[in-house]
């Protein structure tokens, strides 16, 4: 049996492929090594994996995750996976490579992620050839759920939301200033916390404030990241991630304004990843 995983900062989507090619999907939490260690990964997997999953029967694990870049980060995740799937060959890669493989297969092109965080690259059909660093949610991640959520939180705390949205936000979350700052500065996974408020922008997407917020976020994404790729206007914009998918109309508008044609925008790369690994098995 083979397990293929797309690991974001918030959620990991898994697909189990058995010897007959039958696919089973399930989710666990995300395993971003900037926020969780090997022991935490092991504990979460043992808590969250389906009870019916026969761990010794898993022969291969292909895990792609957020922030799995350096040798240390790869080891953090790989050690956790190996501890749980003891009989398997474990392969750990970056979620950006997952996006490129899911969107482009073995063809060259441009691929991006717009979810809790953001990332992007040029891909030659085998490897990532160019990447403009998103710098994470503290310094960058323009266009992401975290970027949108931070702006919403800032405007809410300063009373800058339109009155109806200010009231709706208060009613939806019942959070005061001290609770918000505690979640941001003292609690684990602050990136997930701020990104969770992108749903509010989606739920109120008919309002001019939320429309402007989302477009401004994507405008920053193109100005500060996409426009830094050489010859980016000759590429087709392809993207995975919940933020890109839910706000795809606004994203396509901003891309067109920057002279970049839109190709494929999907919510999750998992189906494309499964197809890639089945086509390239062995």
UniProtKB/TrEMBL annotation:
This is N-acetylglucosamine kinase. InterPro entries: ATPase_NBD (IPR043129), Euk-type_GlcNAc_Kinase (IPR052519). It comes from Hymenobacter nivis. Keywords: Kinase, Transferase. It comes from the Bacteria. Gene3D superfamilies: 1.10.720.160, 3.30.420.40. PANTHER family: N-ACETYL-D-GLUCOSAMINE KINASE (PTHR43190:SF3). GO terms for molecular function: kinase activity.
